Amino acid sequence: MTQQNSRRDFIKASTMLAIGFSLPSIGKAESLHKIDTSSASALGIELNPYILINDDGKIILFNARPDMGQGTYQSLPLLIAEELEVTLDQVEIRNTDGQGKYGAQLSGGSSSVRTRWLPMRKAGAAVKEMLITAASKKWQVPVSECYALEAKVFHKPSGKSYTYGELVEEASKLEIPKEPKLKDQKDFKLLGKSVPRPEIPSKVNGTAVFGIDSDIPGMLYASIERSPTIHGKVVSFDGSAAMKVKGVKYVVKTERKMPHKAVEAVAVIADTYWAALKGRKALKINWDAQGSDKISTDAYFENLRNLAKTDGIEYKNEKVGDFNKAFGSATKKVEAQYETPFLAHAPLEPENATVWVQGDKVEIWAPIQGPDGLIPQVAAYLKIKPENVKVNVPFMGGAFGRKAYFDYVLEAANLSKQVNAPVKVIWTREDDTMQGPFRPGMLSAMQGGLDEKGNVVAHNHKIVGSSIQHQVFGNPLKNAPDDWAIETANTEDSPYDFASRKASFHLAETDIPILWWRSVYSSTTAFGQESFIDELAHAAKTDPLAFRLDMLADAPRFSRVLQTLAKKANYHQKLPEGQAIGIAVARSFGTIVAHAVTVSKSGKGVKIEKVVSVIDCGMTVNPDNIKAQTEGNIVMGLTAAIKNGITIKDGLTEQSNFHQYNVLRINEMPKTEVYIVDNQEAPGGVGEPGLPPFAPALCNAIYNLTGTRIRTLPFDIDNIG
Amino acid sequence: MAKYNLNVNGKKYNVDADADTPLLWVIRDHVGLKGTKFGCGMALCGACTVHLDGQPIRSCSTPISTLKATNKITTIEGISVNTDSAIQKAWIEEQVPQCGYCQSGQIMSAVALLKEKSNPTDSDIDEAMSGNICRCGTYPRIRKAIHRAAELMKDSGNSTGK
């Protein structure tokens, strides 16, 4: 690719722009199982980085947020399409490759639509204006007589039209409008409507390409035996039996490079994955656990409980009034501690990466959440230039945060370099479950004080646990609390009108690899926050909904969500004998979600009769997908509440596969109803906010039914206290 | 290594593989059909579900040596690449997939269910589908889509789900 006109990066090469991007589009079944490795393909004229139009009419929109199931493959292109006046069946969608011109490309923090809704719409609107101007020039008519519709520009008085393809060359000579006019929300044809997701057909006929489906000529397969304990060194290994397995080509020492440390490993590389796996099972390795065989989650939580006895580092911004004084003089004092476990992400597609290192160049095919973040890591690891790293981004078979941690890609890079061939590393389910990184185990120590009228005069949330920023990003947090850990419990996300309030964070360092997990700390902090509000309501002898509404009078969006929930869940109607309802509300990633869970007695435990959810995520892109994500968050939140956590003993993870790390199955799925509060606010996140309030809503319902207060997750729903 | 004759989606293949190689890896890496997915390797998650003579099996735990050349194996690609089967139409109508990784296995289990029971109840669905994990949480939509597929099949007089 050559660059001529740097202003706009558009080039005429027989009216085609060639750029180095090789992942085939979705929807053409015949080409999907071989990733095209040709160095360049003719695509079209780039009017801005996200929009390419070919003079034969082909339109390509770029999606800068890899799709792990949350719908970015549609949502970001749809923002462009709305303003560009095209429909998704008129375009081809491609994922971006990490190049800087596309901006930040990490799918995470429920940020894709939240941060890109204006830039993407502006990109579409600017190109539309250029195409309209180009048409008006060709016709020599005023711009005001022209309009765009379905990939054509029309001249209103004459009814004449040009396709975008016929206009692209002329349009590419124009200045890009800096402040293009955006459409009024009332004129939206695509946004806010439940437009079918374009990749769904490929996901029901087996043709969607996931990372694990990458297929490179001459590719070898690797399975890696990593230190079984949290960290370790290879003292010696014997690969002779592995080498005897037919198809095994190499047994090599390697490493798993994590942000906070590298652990040693031995890889078996073979012609087929099965041979690599068999070879791995035949390895004999002597490990030095380097003391990590003393690590246990029991000891970790013991440490959290000890730390909780003293004050952590205060969140100064969260301070309201004088907590110590108010709590000291409160009529009624309530204290409780809540614990949430370590969890594995367990995406159904295990971590995998195909990497081909050729001298000082490397090409990668891997399910990853952020190609722009991967490039510098791989470049630094291989000591090559970032511009020599080429990344292809297929679909991810789930990720939930895990695939923004690129240890598995670096493993494949290391091995490809060692054996001078493309290598595909596939983690087993056991690797995925046992090796981490995990959601960190956390503790919330709560204190609340009520006055004689039952008003909350003092509220304290002490967060105790390990810090992702500290371990993964090297933030020392010497005299500062972890500002991520307070999400959903801060004054903005939990705006209860407490007369006094404080919050603090106690860092518990650990060598157990940790990472963000769907909704990050919100999934742990909200459990303490929203369960304790319920405890305070009961202590005040007030209905938990009325108690919340009373303290949310100055937070109209929260009140509206709760009032809508009360209506949709028939909160005020008398329930049948033996049933109870519980609620919780939390804001995270800019979106408010409330759940009402109805439970009934079932043997020694409880059965979930129904879950009703209300979400306010501002302006909607695809309401059906918002519902789907909220349903998914209910499933994941319920799994996290009642299924196994990750426990570690003697440095070894005690769960290995889905028989020990159980996840919710369809026969355990309660009935769900999801409602969206419609409004014109800026969009909030959608992929995560449904999760944090689920566990507290469930446990609040169980308390109302049984009188048992659950303060430690996970719990056995079939055997309540 | 040994040679095995396989019939996958009506096409004959001759593959060279170790006797203990799971059918999953033969389908994916020898035959080259990537729609069937690896999830757990222990028949716990259902991502690898294919049909063996019409019955759903977990291909990750089925050694190639246990198959006969006369066995008919059907994978997701054998349902309909054009997505015009009742089950696929229903899956699209209900917008079931999120990440989509488990959906090949879900659909293979659902097709087998509908062949047994043309009008399944929720509890029939729970029973037949509980071996298929979906981490994204598409279960409510899977239920709806199976009911919808049953309707579509009734309307068209086709009882195979395909």
What would you note in describing this structure?
The complex is a heterodimer of chains A (721) and B (162). Chain A has 16 helices and 29 strands. Helices cover 26% and strands 24% of the residues of chain A. Chain A is α+β, with helices and mostly antiparallel strands. In chain A, the strands form 8 sheets. A 7-stranded mixed sheet of chain A has the order 12-13-10-20-17-18-19, sandwiched between helices. A 5-stranded mixed sheet of chain A has the order 15-23-22-21-16. In chain A, strands 3-4-5-6 form a 4-stranded mixed sheet. In chain A, helix 1 (72-84) links the parallel strand 5 and strand 6. With 162 residues, chain B is α+β, with helices and mostly antiparallel strands. Chain B folds into 2 domains: 2-78, Ubiquitin-like (UB roll) (Roll); 86-156, DNA polymerase, domain 1. In chain B, strands 2-1-5-3-4 form a 5-stranded mixed sheet, sandwiched between helices. In chain B, a hairpin with a 2-residue loop joins strand 1 (2-8) and strand 2. In chain B, 58% of the residues are buried. Classes of the chains: A alpha+beta (721), B alpha+beta (162). Chains A and B meet through helix 5 and helix 15 of A and helix 1, helix 2, helix 3, helix 4 and helix 5 of B. Chain B: This is (2Fe-2S)-binding protein. Chain B: Keywords: 2Fe-2S, Iron, Iron-sulfur, Metal-binding, Oxidoreductase. Chain B: InterPro entries: 2Fe-2S-bd, 2Fe-2S-bd_dom_sf, 2Fe-2S_ferredoxin-like_sf, 2Fe-2S_ferredoxin-type, 2Fe2S_fd_BS, Beta-grasp_dom_sf, Diverse_Oxidoreductases.
